[in-house]
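User: Run a structure prediction on this.
Assistant: Running it now.
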Amino acid sequence: MDVDRERELADVLDLAQAVRQAMGQVIEGKPEVLDLVITALLAEGHLLIEDVPGVGKTMLAKSLAKAIDCSARRVQFTPDLLPSDITGVSVYNQLTTDFEFKPGGVFANLVIGDEINRASPKTQSALLEAMEERRVSVDGTTHSLPRPFMVIATQNPIEMEGTYPLPEAQRDRFLMRIAMGYPSAEAEVAMLEHHGEVDPIDPLQPVTDAAAVMRCVAIVRRVFVHPAVKDYLVAILHRTRTLTDVRLGASPRAGLQLMRAAKARAAMAGRGYVIPDDITDLAGPALAHRVLLSTQAQLAGRSVTDLLTAAVREVAIPTGRR
């Protein structure tokens, strides 16, 4: 590896470590979750955080927004939220006798969509073009979104009252779905001691900016993926589509996004190349929300995570050189 490449990977390592330490001041005892969030950031993907209320989903998103010196907006999804609240609207200006565009909540580097599955399906779909194309169209005019652009959406489990399940097309736009889980007893005691009187977000200072993030994103894109590793990834995707307990397997978009995430994970480990472990470690977070179980599997109480684990185990790991 040449010196310039080593320096670039060192920059990714430094940024990831700085963001991880900053967010760790707020999120106690969740290093794996923080790594997944930073992986999604460097892969320029969107993140869906699903868990019960009160475990720190919104706090996680806010801590990332505060750690990066860039524009951030929070959108509270409610049943009466309109699509125009997301994308923006053209308003007639009497002084100029012309229509002017008023940007909606999606116009920021980091958009926090809080409780996204409490909004109507029509409003949820307003995010589709923005998340995939990084632009929105209003009244026939296309408006580009700032870069980097990342949506961190939180949602409550579908069983919670007053929720609308995200359609498959919407879930497929998210690079990963993660769960916070309850903290350990030690982390919860530390939370009571440190966060009881002061908002933990207030003392957090930015450790990087949008330009540095985009430089690292460009470095991540150049991480090498061997053809054998690509074949391994595709074999996992195909296995999810042939399982008898699965009604809908992982899409080709899932493969592209899993590869981007694996590149980010490799760069965060100081490597300029992807190894099979990068794929297997991220297969669950990147694929579980895209795979639909059959009715029989749901009635039998089977989980997507268990099926994915079995599918990955059945695919032969590439060894040696081709």
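The two ends are 21 Å apart (CA to CA).
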